[in-house]
């Protein structure tokens, strides 16, 4: 295989490139663009050799779509054809014959600019140096030469030969490239029939200067031994010739054989692509097509969104997307748009049906335009009219219906091209003989023509090619890869009704080809679009935009088998034709007379002003963030605890430095300051912020203690060092910010100076530590059940704990002393889970208190604590207390460690949101299931035994499994042990609840059945989870449903039918005595009130199963049902009963096309006319009634979910 000469250790079939060696000279780095070896012509004969040879064959079945079949093999030729050039005295025909042999036609069929042959006479092969270069020759206006490694390029057993450009070093033009097909031929200079060659093609650039063959030929075949079929060696007397056959071809699009490294779509084409979020290539191709329908883009810009600039508004996000495509220099993301659709991650990774998406998007944009002057723009642009008719041949009678269409679905199977498909679409069916049409009482049975004909076509015609069809033999959807041609232009008037307006030309011009490459279940979508009336086609492949030739647009997307440049079918190893995986599935034609209107110029000024203004603001904000990031190294964040933040802090320690707590009132204040600023500058900034004189503010450095608390260590007395120097001196950083406590002096001398209680500065400038210590005070308010900071105090270490009481009384304004029946208890907060009581008579020094320690105090009645000051647990008789009420600070501290704010909400399907709104509770994670139920029951006012909880999926917010009642704690419910993916995908602060009709104990004996109740025909579906005794019957299910759904009983309002459905088809009706334990868990259970006319019928043969589908019976949707047949009833009357039976009214019902679906011809529905009699048409019990109409839920083609657009 071809590679760059610098990739020395690659295997024979390896691909590599000079620029890919890493810093360690790793020559195994892979090439970014796989180069193909051009195949020899069919008349080449392989040598009859038993030796193992280097052969690399690419099987067309596994290759890339555009890759030719590639071979790399030793070749022999039956007729002597000397390959040498001017150095041998032979006629020109010999070179031409060899050129035909070694330079086969290229799959891309580029125009040949020049063919050149250059021969290098090599002498003294085994005495040559490691690397040799041949003489420079010209081809395509550029210099070239052969590069030879006679002893191998880091391979021991083979020679290496390459073609390289011949520019002088450092003189290669910038952005230079040249596309070359070449063959290197090594042959005996005395007998040109002894030769060996390799062929390749490559895009030569400044970065990829050479390409060729590291393993060209083994030495053992070159020297001394006779060449196959000859009596002479290939290299004779250490001499041989090497000829380079060089074909320079035109790079029409600028990307022929491009590796797309550092490719700039905007620079090369003027357009940008769309980023693929995962599997959104189908969305990207559609959006690009709509974007370049310029009139559509203008219409989207016209939607009034200035009052709803919300990312949930799909019209606004589509405007944003189009504006970015118009102005951005790089590929644009579609995240905003898909989020406005309400899509979750799973939708991003599911390829969905483009036709469904297109229709849904059009509907949504049409809704957004209602009430504006542009509300008819989209129908005028994309909607045409079609007539379905039955016309009598011999009498003047016709039954017809005219409908709007937004796209036309054309059959690919059985048709060779687009025009055949149109003829097939409007094909007339003759109704005669036994199939005569009943033309009313006046004309009776008549011969008639039945079919459809177009009344008008839209300005922009979307044609959906039915590449995906149901295969009845395989019982699955399959892709049709047949060859199917479509023209650049066609005349649509041939398919118009004779009465249609033909005063203006109905010629259409192709402007878009949307392509699917792959099979049904996996593939890739991209688009070829022609943005201008005249000019280039472009390929839009996600984030990459390239110019495209008409051959790429048309021939390569007709589908069918691959063909060689000689129009021969390419065969697989099994001799079967190799089918193209890529083919057009949607075509966009524009009426030629409306081209200027549809492709009108769109400028930035056409975008809404508020949209432009928003992007300018966002650009300015991004620029500010960019500057901030660039200057980030110059700044340092400082987190400061102030008296105000401490007093607002209700947790452990002095504050929480956790980023999650930044918005809480007790969080430290954050200052962004230059690293080079002095500490004096920092003091000035903090003092100004808290409204204090800088002389009265002193900063203490916060440090991490060994017990994992963060406390003040010592004050900063020298304010001359920089902030960064001070930060670097602080030890054991766990925070990228400098953490300080801002102390404000409580006493100021008359001259305005401050004498600090500790670390006072002496006249000589020396700072000393005295015996006073800094303590912080917290108060546990038992009545309010809260903890808060009070302030700080200085006190001598020799003082006793009880000496703090006067200070506390003063700070709390509790008077000079407490009532005789009350005491103050005190504890030291050593760390969150270590709260020790302080003895009243013990000195602070003996209690090992120091700077930064925290004292928590509480006012306690004498009867509750005999020990008073000691703070030990009381021994008095405990009275009953409410759940989660804490009598002393030590209990509350334990709660703080385990507390969690949990969100509760009614189960989305099983809860009653109107009765039970969402709420939050602060709970102790150590409580068990029963305590949790008791707390939630108290909040809801329901029995705790009737509550069931569900964990919540963190990504979808959907309920997970129900929580089993037991002794597990709330903590283990919210955060299960282990680190499985299931646990990681669970919210640790939220639960859903369900209020049951019975206790959990009773529930264990019940079976839960999800029932769909049809309350208004089949148009309104209500879902209910019904609990029935496991030994119950369907009758019990009905009775439970009546209670659950709060509907009248059977005695009051009539019989209820219960039946099962599967894949939107009727499965079976369940008898009242059927055991509920046997109901299939994989079917859908449906219940409905039986119509009176059906309740009296007992014969099953009088019913037909009915189901809904869209276009094809293989795409069912909605709820199926049973329908009563009446003998002799015309379908016009049957439809009236169907309208009442289904509950579908007005225009929605009028748009339904009814058909009979036969099991034997499932994919070919027989559509019904008003004069048909359903009783006669549906002759077999297996026949079904089909209702063909759009699925409002837009079910996906592959059935993986519902396609929906919310915003």
TrEMBL record:
Keywords per UniProt: Hydrolase, Nucleus, Protease, Thiol protease, Ubl conjugation pathway
Main location: nucleus
Xref: Pfam families: MATH_2 (PF22486), UCH (PF00443), USP7_C2 (PF14533), USP7_ICP0_bdg (PF12436)
The keyword Zinc-finger is annotated on this UniProt entry: no
Ranges where the MATH domain occurs: 115-246
Catalytic activity: Thiol-dependent hydrolysis of ester, thioester, amide, peptide and isopeptide bonds formed by the C-terminal Gly of ubiquitin (a 76-residue protein attached to proteins as an intracellular targeting signal)
Record's signal peptide: none
InterPro entries xrefs: MATH/TRAF_dom, Papain-like_cys_pep_sf, Peptidase_C19, Peptidase_C19_UCH, TRAF-like, USP, USP7_ICP0-binding_dom, USP_C
Domain annotation USP: ranges: 272-592
GO molecular function: cysteine-type deubiquitinase activity; endopeptidase activity; metal-dependent deubiquitinase activity
Entry annotated with the keyword Amino-acid biosynthesis: no
A cellular-component GO term for this protein: cytosol
GO biological process, alphabetically ordered: protein deubiquitination; proteolysis; regulation of protein stability
EC number per UniProt: 3.4.19.12
Name the UniProt record assigns to this protein: ubiquitinyl hydrolase 1
Source species of the chain: Podospora fimiseda
């Amino acid at each position: 295989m071809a590679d760059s000469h610098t990739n020395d250790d690659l295997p024979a079939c390896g691909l590599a490139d000079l620029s890919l060696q890493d810093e360690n000279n790793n020559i195994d780095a892979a090439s970014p663009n796989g180069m193909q070896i051009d195949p020899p012509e069919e008349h080449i004969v392989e040598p009859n050799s038993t030796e193992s040879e280097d052969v690399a064959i690419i099987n067309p079945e596994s290759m890339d779509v555009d890759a030719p079949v590639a071979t790399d093999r030793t070749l022999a030729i039956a007729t002597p054809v000397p390959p040498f050039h001017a150095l041998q005295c032979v006629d020109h025909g010999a070179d031409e014959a060899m050129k035909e042999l070694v330079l086969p036609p290229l799959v891309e069929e580029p125009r040949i600019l020049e063919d050149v042959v250059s021969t290098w006479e090599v002498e003294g092969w085994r005495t040559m140096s490691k690397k040799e270069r041949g003489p420079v020759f010209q081809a395509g206006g550029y210099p070239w030469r052969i590069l030879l490694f006679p002893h191998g390029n880091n391979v021991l057993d083979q020679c290496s030969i390459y073609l390289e450009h011949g520019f002088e070093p450092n003189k290669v033009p910038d952005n230079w490239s040249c596309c070359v097909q070449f063959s290197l031929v090594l042959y005996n200079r005395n007998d040109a029939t002894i030769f060996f060659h390799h062929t390749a093609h490559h895009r030569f650039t400044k970065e990829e200067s050479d390409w060729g063959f590291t393993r060209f030929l083994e030495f053992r075949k070159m020297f001394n031994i006779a060449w196959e079929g000859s009596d002479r060696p290939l290299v004779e007397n250490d001499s041989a010739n090497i000829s380079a056959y060089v074909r320079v071809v035109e790079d029409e699009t600028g990307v022929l054989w491009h590796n797309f490294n550092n490719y700039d779509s905007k620079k090369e084409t003027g357009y940008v692509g769309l980023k693929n979020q995962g599997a959104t290539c189908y969305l990207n191709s559609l959006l690009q097509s709509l974007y370049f329908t310029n009139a559509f883009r203008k219409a989207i810009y016209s939607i009034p969104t200035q009052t709803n600039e919300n990312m949930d508004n799909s019209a606004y996000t589509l405007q944003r997307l189009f504006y970015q495509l118009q102005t951005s220099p790089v590929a644009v993301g579609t995240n905003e748009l898909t989020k406005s659709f309400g899509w979750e991650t799973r939708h991003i990774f599911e390829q969905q049906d483009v036709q469904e998406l297109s229709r849904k998007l059009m509907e949504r944009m049409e809704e957004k335009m209602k009430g504006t002057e542009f509300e008819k723009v989209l129908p005028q642009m994309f909607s045409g009219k079609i007539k379905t008719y039955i016309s009598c041949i011999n009498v003047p009678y016709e039954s017809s219906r005219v409908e709007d269409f937004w796209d036309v679905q054309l059959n690919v199977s059985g048709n060779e091209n687009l025009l055949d498909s149109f003829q097939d679409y409007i094909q007339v069916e003759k109704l005669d003989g036994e199939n005569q049409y009943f033309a009313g009482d006046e004309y009776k049975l008549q011969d008639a023509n039945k079919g459809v004909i177009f009344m008008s076509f839209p300005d922009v015609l979307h044609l959906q090619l039915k590449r995906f069809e149901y295969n009845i033999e395989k019982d699955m959807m399959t892709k049709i890869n047949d060859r199917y041609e479509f023209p650049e232009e066609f005349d649509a008037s041939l398919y118009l009704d004779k009465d249609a307006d033909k005063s203006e030309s109905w010629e259409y011009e192709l402007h878009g080809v949307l392509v699917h490459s792959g099979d049904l279940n996996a593939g890739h979508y991209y688009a070829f679009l022609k943005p201008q009336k005249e000019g280039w086609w472009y390929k839009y492949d996600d984030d990459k935009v390239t110019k495209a030739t008409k051959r790429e647009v048309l021939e390569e997307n007709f589908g069918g088998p691959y063909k060689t440049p000689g129009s021969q079918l390419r065969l697989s190893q099994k001799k079967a034709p190799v089918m193209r995986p890529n083919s057009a599935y949607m075509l966009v034609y524009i009426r030629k007379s409306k081209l200027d209107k549809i492709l009108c110029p769109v400028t930035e000024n056409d975008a809404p002003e508020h949209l432009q203004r928003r992007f300018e603001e966002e650009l300015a904000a991004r620029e500010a963030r960019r500057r901030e990031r660039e200057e980030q190294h110059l700044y340092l964040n400082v987190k400061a605890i102030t008296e105000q933040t401490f007093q607002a802090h209700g947790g452990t320690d002095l504050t929480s430095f956790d980023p999650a707590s930044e918005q809480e009132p007790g969080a430290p204040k954050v200052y962004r300051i230059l690293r080079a600023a002095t500490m004096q500058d920092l003091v000035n900034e903090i003092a100004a912020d808290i409204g204090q004189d800088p002389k009265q503010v002193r900063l203490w450095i916060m440090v991490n203690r060994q017990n994992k608390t963060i406390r003040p260590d010592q004050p900063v007395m020298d304010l001359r060092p920089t902030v960064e120097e001070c930060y670097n001196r602080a030890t054991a950083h766990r925070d990228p910010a400098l953490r300080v406590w801002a102390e404000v002096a409580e006493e100021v001398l008359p001259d305005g100076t401050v004498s600090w209680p500790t670390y006072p500065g002496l006249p000589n400038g020396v700072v000393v530590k005295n015996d006073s210590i800094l303590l912080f005070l917290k108060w546990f308010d038992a009545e309010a059940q809260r903890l808060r900071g009070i302030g700080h105090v200085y006190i001598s270490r020799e003082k006793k704990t009880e000496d703090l009481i006067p200070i506390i009384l003063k700070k709390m304004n509790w008077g000079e002393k407490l009532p005789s029946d009350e005491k103050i208890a005190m504890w030291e907060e050593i760390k969150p889970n270590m709260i020790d009581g302080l003895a009243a008579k013990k000195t602070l020094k003996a209690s090992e208190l120091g700077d930064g320690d925290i004292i928590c105090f509480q006012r306690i009645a004498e009867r509750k604590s005999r020990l008073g000051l000691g703070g030990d647990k009381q021994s008095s008789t405990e009275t009953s207390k409410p759940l989660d009420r804490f009598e002393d600070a030590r209990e509350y501290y334990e709660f703080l460690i385990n507390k969690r704010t949990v969100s509760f909400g009614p189960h989305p399907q099983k809860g009653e949101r109107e009765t039970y709104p969402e709420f939050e509770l602060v709970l102790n994670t150590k409580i068990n299931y029963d305590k949790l139920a008791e707390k939630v029951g108290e909040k809801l006012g329901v029995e705790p035994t009737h509550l069931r909880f569900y964990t919540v999926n963190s990504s979808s917010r959907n309920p997970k499994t129900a929580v089993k009642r037991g002794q597990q704690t709330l903590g283990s419910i919210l955060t299960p042990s282990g680190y499985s993916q299931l646990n990681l995908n669970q919210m640790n602060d939220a639960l859903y609840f369900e209020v049951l009709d019975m206790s959990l104990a009773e529930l264990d004996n019940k079976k839960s059945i999800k029932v769909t109740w049809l309350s208004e025909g089949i148009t309104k579906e209500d879902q209910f989870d019904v609990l029935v005794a496991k030994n119950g019957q369907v009758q019990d299910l009905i009775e439970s449903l009546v209670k659950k759904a709060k509907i009248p009983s059977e005695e009051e309002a009539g019989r209820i039918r219960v039946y099962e459905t599967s894949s939107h088809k009727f499965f079976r009706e369940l008898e009242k005595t059927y055991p509920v334990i046997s109901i299939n868990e994989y079917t859908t259970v449906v219940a409905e009130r039986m119509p009176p006319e059906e309740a009296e019928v007992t014969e099953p043969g009088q019913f037909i199963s009915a189901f809904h589908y869209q276009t094809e019976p293989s795409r069912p949707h909605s709820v199926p049902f049973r329908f009563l047949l009446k003998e002799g009833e015309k379908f016009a009357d049957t439809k009236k009963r169907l309208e009442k039976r289904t509950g579908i009214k007005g225009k929605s019902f009028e748009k339904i096309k009814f058909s009979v679906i036969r099991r034997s011809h499932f994919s070919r529905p027989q559509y019904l006319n008003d004069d048909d009699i359903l009783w006669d048409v549906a002759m077999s019990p297996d026949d079904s009634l089909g209702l063909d109409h759009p699925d409002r839920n837009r079910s996906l083609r592959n059935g993986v979910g519902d396609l929906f657009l919310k915003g």
